[in-house]
Amino acid sequence: MKKLVLSLFIVGSMLTSCSSDDDNGSSGSQVVAPATYQFERNGVTTVNYGGQTSRILMGVEFVSALSDNTKTEVELDGMFTNTGDYFSTSELNTSGKDIRSKTAASNDYFSANTTDGNAIKSELDGWIANQVNDVFPNWNTIAVSGTAGQIQEAGGGSIRYVNSKGLEYNQAINKSLIGALIADQILNNYLSPSVLDAGDNITNNDSDVLDGSNNYTTMEHKWDEAFGYLYGTDDALAPQLNQDSFLNKYLSRVEDDEDFAGIADDIYNAFKLGRAAIVSKNYTVRDQQAEIIREKISEIIAIRAVYYLQQGKTNLGTDYGSAFHDLSEGFGFVYSLQFTRQPGTSSPYFTKSEVDAFVSELMTANGFWDVTSETLDSISEDIASRFNFTVEQAGS
Amino acid sequence: MFKKVLVLIAFVFIALACSSSDDGSGNTSDNFDRTALLTNWADNIIVPIYDDLNTLLADLVVKKDAFVTTPNQTTLNEFRTSWYNAYKVWQYAEMFNIGRAEEINFAFQMNIYPTNVSDIQSNIESQSYDLTNVNNNDAVGFPALDYMLYGLADDDADILEFYTTNTEASKYLTYASDLTNQMKALTQDVTSNWSTYRQTFINNTNNTVTGSLNKLVNDFIYYYEKGLRANKIGIPAGNFSTTPLPEKVEGYYRNDVSKALATEAMGAVKDFFNGKAYTSNVTDESLASYLDYLNTIKNGEDLSVLINDQFDTAQANIDSLDDSFTNQINSDNTKMTETFDALQMAVVLLKVDMLQAINISVDYVDADGD
Lengths: 396, 370
What we know:
heterodimer; B: mainly alpha; 2 strands; globular
């Protein structure tokens, strides 16, 4: 009997040694995150995401140009594609980067689905065209149901410029790009093993083979490019947030809601630890951090979608200007849901066809002019039901 | 005693489970018969394809000579038919960028499209050109002949004028002739070279980046990804640009052959993957049989089956397209991008799953970085 117990003990110990073989980081190298997102090799930084910063800056100029009724469609298209030197600096004009080609263009979602990728790009092209052809000519017309024009928020507030259904295209485009460009590139491209581990990236990272004349391995750089889409205009070592009009701003907004306080640190820490894991060649820890980031960034989009639909609801019927502004932002965040990523899967929280159904609910007939509270609530509930928050938490 | 046996059995099972978890990767030294694989590729696929291409180019020269001697509708038609026959076989040959073909950049001298009309015109004008010069890669080969045979004017009578009554007719005839002779000479060179290169190719079984298997597998995937997926479908469909580019299809000037040429290319890819002989239906060692030998499974299915199924899906997409991709792009480009997407799904299977299984690295880089 003693022998049996002893044998079982041995077997048991083998079982554990066997499972630790799968190296969930437990027996592998211990990864320690640095205090800030600072990584160096031979005393020189290995972090570089200039291309991401450029695209965010282009996005900021492009979005603000959408509200300038002196712009032509050619100019706005030129900013979307970076052709024709329409940006304010020659750095941007000659950067070789552009926004459109990275819109709905992630490796995981669109490399084998260029059909949807092209449809999304074309949809944005269409919104640009409509802004120029439908809204700009009516800049001084008072908008009413079925007619594009301007509408002022109550109490002498901001003037909003909407299409015949009450939608502000500049808001729709701005917020849709948070999903289609920023989140899609981060979650479904640069944090994905299909990109991080492409080609010989693992072998090269394991042996510290650098990417040409650069001071980083390709894998390090891919991770940094994900980081750059969120923090590209911010201080990487001490993010201030609210530094641009894309995801960085809305991370700040969600962080400022006490229901979600802490999310900013969660995301920053995951980026740091994941990057440190690449330096330590621990890809299990790296991928765990990627999943955290996927979940949290998806949440930002969903929370803001619900928030704006709920905010818009409170002004329906009394202050259309304010309501339409909120609903237009909400529209963009709803559109962005198709680019989210459920951790542990290769799927978004809402598919393109689910999102298209939401959009057509919002835009049916005269759109925001006659959308009901019930519709806004039901979309809000649908969204919240797939996340760990309630409509109440997100809506205020 | 019985209990001890049980424990022992458990012990053995666990030891087995443990060790089997070690050999999922890093199979640098599997015992698959690479020599048999390379021999099949050389003797039953590559050499017969080059022989056929060389024969068809000899015919092209004959038809061209007849046309140059007597340029009329009949000789033009025969010249065109011969061009098309050779162009179809070219789809099988383009992927083999190895040996002499690699040294002389054979594919760059045979099938760069869209062809550059202004370069062609200035060559004709100047009568002074080196067709092998890199600058002329887009002014030679099948696409340049496509222009010379179909693109000089809108109808045949006007095209024939360039070779007959036009004041520069002799220059046009000379250029058409030089192009054709050059294609034949290059093909002859590559084909002849294989009689000696064959043994080098077969002997080079090592798994380094210069090994035959390694190189040809990369050529194969590159051809699939770039030559077929991108050049024939993705680029004209606008997947790499802001708008579709229907003038960038293969065989643009004749125009009704882009689907047929893509179909040939798809057939070439599938046959190569399955090790099917060029001149018969016999199959021998191949990438498919290699994967089966390694028992490569993905999502519970043989990887070789998944790849073949995806090839079939892609071919079904191609079948649904207009004979002229230009027309297809202009009428319903979605069908083009759906075809691209079907082709892309096999890229992942080939480039990630297959290469991992046979332990080969990609030797070319995508230009998608930033």
